[in-house]
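User: tokens in, sequence out, please.
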């Protein structure tokens, strides 16, 4: 056969892969069995609840069978949890699958999606795979406050979708409702990513009942600890939910994860424990980081804290390396879209983990 590259799609060839955990494969052999404290991926430090573990064990004997494609038990439990009818809900194999399904369902080659960085980068990465074009409406430094006048001005006739991340990753703040309403009045689809909403003081999901062009996405990866089990969902109008269900794979959730989801939604005691501990530990992490001269921790409504570094000669890479040598992984966020300066992002860990991180960073700045 001739040159196989002629069969490849040009826009996919040019796209960059998103591999946030690739470094772990290289680090693991060097851990000498001790492992690393993982504060880089906004994973839950407490693991999944014992009731969820038992549900997975109980489901194992039927793992060789296809799951119920209607996911009746999951949808019923999720409807009770969200307060929305099951007809308004869509399941996905994690948020990434939903992002792809969203683009496959609404974006044609050349269509534009408006982003408001700093935000969650994979939305732009997956858009390239689907052949769409990205438009940007930035939040200006140094405080990265919302400026919806600029967002509205960035909308063009080619804009088909606007993606809003609330609470925001990486800034940690929530989107003002008044500003979002302005976007919803436009003739385009608005997607609100609420991956961290369980840790926040507010949500925008109630607007789904007022606007037919709104989709709110959420995940089990954060508050329920399902990062490795993969489960996301969307809340929207029954019409859009029915449409999206046609796009998403007919078995998006495996049988073990489905059983785990039902158990997780019923385990309200564990849910409240996680929310309480993360909020308490987040406040500690913010306050202690802000005590260090040259460190500015942004107020967060999530399970992570974004911090800006301003000591000459002390870069985010040096801080990340210093923590790595002590067995702690964080994210170096310098150079990410929309951010100007030196930044690190730290997942909120246990009290002991947070204390260790603060001590190491403080020693570097002393």
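Assistant: Sequence out:
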């Amino acid at each position: 056969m001739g040159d196989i590259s002629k069969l490849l799609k040009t826009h996919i060839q040019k796209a960059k892969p998103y591999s946030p955990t690739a470094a772990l494969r290289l680090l693991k052999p060097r851990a000498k069995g001790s492992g690393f404290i993982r504060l880089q991926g906004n994973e839950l430090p407490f693991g999944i609840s014992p009731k969820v573990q038992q549900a997975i064990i109980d489901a194992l004997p039927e793992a060789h069978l296809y799951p119920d494609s209607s996911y009746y038990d999951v949808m019923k439990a999720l409807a009770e949890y969200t307060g929305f009818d099951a007809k308004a809900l869509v399941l996905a194999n994690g948020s990434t699958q939903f992002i792809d399904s969203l683009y496959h369902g609404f974006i044609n080659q050349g269509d534009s999606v408006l982003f408001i960085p700093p935000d969650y980068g994979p939305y732009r990465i997956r858009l390239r795979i689907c052949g769409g074009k990205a438009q940007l409406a930035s939040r200006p430094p140094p405080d990265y406050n919302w400026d919806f006048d600029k967002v509205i001005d960035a909308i063009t006739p080619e804009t088909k979708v606007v993606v809003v991340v609330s609470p925001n990753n990486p800034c940690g703040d929530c989107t003002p409702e008044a500003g979002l309403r302005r976007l919803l009045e436009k003739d385009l689809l608005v997607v609100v990513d609420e991956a961290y909403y369980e840790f926040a003081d507010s949500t925008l999901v109630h607007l789904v009942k007022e606007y037919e062009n709104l989709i709110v996405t959420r995940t089990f990866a954060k508050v329920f600890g399902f990062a490795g089990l993969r489960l996301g969902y969307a809340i929207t109008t029954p019409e859009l939910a029915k449409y999206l269900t046609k796009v998403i794979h007919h078995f998006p959730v495996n049988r073990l994860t489905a059983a785990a989801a039902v158990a997780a939604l019923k385990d309200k005691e564990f849910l409240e424990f996680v929310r309480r501990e993360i909020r308490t530990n987040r406040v500690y992490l913010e306050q202690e980081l802000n005590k260090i001269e040259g460190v500015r921790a942004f107020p967060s409504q999530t399970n992570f804290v974004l911090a800006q570094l301003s000591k000459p000669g002390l870069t985010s890479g040096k801080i990340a390396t210093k923590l790595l040598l002590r067995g702690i992984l964080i994210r170096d966020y310098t150079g990410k879209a929309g951010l100007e300066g030196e930044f690190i992002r730290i997942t909120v860990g246990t009290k002991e983990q947070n204390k260790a991180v603060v001590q190491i960073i403080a020693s570097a700045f002393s």
